[in-house]
Specification:
mainly alpha, 3 domains, Zincin-like
């Protein structure tokens, strides 16, 4: 199913995590140097390129301790508060055994069966069919599932999805994904800040010394300022692009291994296959950032965007489960269409398993929405 074994995958994740953390500091220094170049041009726009490069290098040396402390502080903030940030974006809320007994018991039974520490359980109010795991250590690990997933999947399918997320935690995938989000977030923020400052400001290259220089010197120095700014913008764009490339470090093989881990936990490949069929093209979380979507069971991508997807296609994942786990593919599974506005979906009796999210009379629990979770989500 994968080109290398589980323990090699875990060791590789740890190694890549260290590289990504080192890469965060490197990209911060690149951003500081680029900012210094622009700052020097603003202060005096009548110098040569060599002058700006040397001045920016001196500024970088002076700012090196501050930049290092700022990057380290961001890592500390992300370490302790990343879950709060993700919850604020997704709206996930902690639930207890009393609030979601069946879901809680499914997760607890899986953890007990393999001696895995019980992560926190969260529910996100969304019609989308998806789930994701987060956390950097045992005290922080959590699994978040959407109400749409709870409504549309059977107990066996939900158990398979929970097994998938527990495998991500056990394999160390979660730490790598969170670190990648931290790097992409901080570099993207400062890159956008610089670009906004650049494009929404009035720049006057070469005007600073024109009254004290000859025409040729003015043209030369003005050209130096333009070249310095172009170089700075190129460096910022490069840092931003590298922060996106960080996502490519999230090997697609992790999803195959998580699917296999789910089958190993549940002994039910057909449940994982049918869960993927129901989730396919219905997992887009409204308002969630691309970084959050990359943590999910499925991250819908189409066309050119699929070239940079961090998840393999559902078809390829199911093909692997059929080939290596002996599962059976039922093909696309249609769900009930959305109800008209102002009405709750009322599936036929027996259409969905009776449980805390479906009492057999069409009720969908305290998170019921006017448009049900059975339609296609885009």
């Amino acid at each position: 199913m994968a080109a290398y074994g589980l323990y090699t995958h875990i060791a590789s994740n740890k190694f890549r995590s260290m590289l990504l953390l080192a890469g965060l500091f490197f990209l911060i220094y690149v951003m500081v140097f680029a900012g210094a170049l622009i700052g020097e041009v603003v202060i005096d726009s009548g110098r040569t390129v060599d002058y700006y490069l040397a001045a920016a290098a001196r500024d970088l040396i002076k700012a090196f301790p501050v930049a290092t402390i700022a990057a380290a502080l961001w890592i500390v903030i992300a370490y302790f508060f990343h879950q709060n940030i993700i919850d604020a974006v997704t709206g996930g809320e902690d639930v207890t055994r009393l609030q979601a007994p069946r879901l809680y018991n499914l997760l607890e039974n899986l953890c007990i069966s393999r001696g895995i520490p019980m992560p926190k359980l969260k529910i996100m109010d969304s019609d989308a069919l998806n789930a994701f795991a987060t956390g950097l250590n045992r005290r922080q690990y959590s699994v978040t599932v959407t109400t749409g997933l709870l409504n549309a999947l059977t107990d066996q399918e939900i158990e398979a999805v929970l097994g998938h997320e527990l495998t991500h935690i056990r394999n160390g995938d979660v730490q790598l994904m969170v670190i990648a989000v931290v790097i992409a977030g901080v570099v993207g923020f400062f890159a956008e800040l610089f670009f906004r400052s650049f494009f929404y400001s009035n720049w006057n290259f070469g005007g600073g010394r024109s009254s004290r220089s000859s025409d040729s010197d003015s043209k030369s120095s003005g050209g130096g300022a333009v070249i310095a700014v172009i170089l700075a913008v190129a460096l910022i764009a490069l840092a931003w692009a590298l922060s996106l490339v960080v996502r490519l470090a999230l090997s697609r093989s992790r999803e195959y291994l998580a699917d296999a881990g789910s089958v190993e936990l549940t002994k039910n490949p057909d449940a994982m296959i049918s869960a993927l069929r129901k989730i396919d093209d219905r997992g887009e979380l409204p308002g969630a950032t691309s970084a959050v979507m990359e943590m999910c069971v499925d991250n819908p991508r189409e066309g050119f965007a699929d070239l940079f997807a961090t998840h393999p296609s559902v078809d390829s994942r199911i093909a692997a489960l059929v080939k290596y786990a002996g599962g059976h593919d039922p093909g696309p599974i249609p769900l009930l269409p959305d109800a008209p506005d102002g009405q709750l979906d009322q599936p036929p009796a027996g259409q969905l398993p009776v449980g805390p999210w479906n009492d057999g009379r069409g009720s969908q629990g305290p998170w019921a929405r006017l448009r049900g979770p059975w339609g296609r989500h885009r």
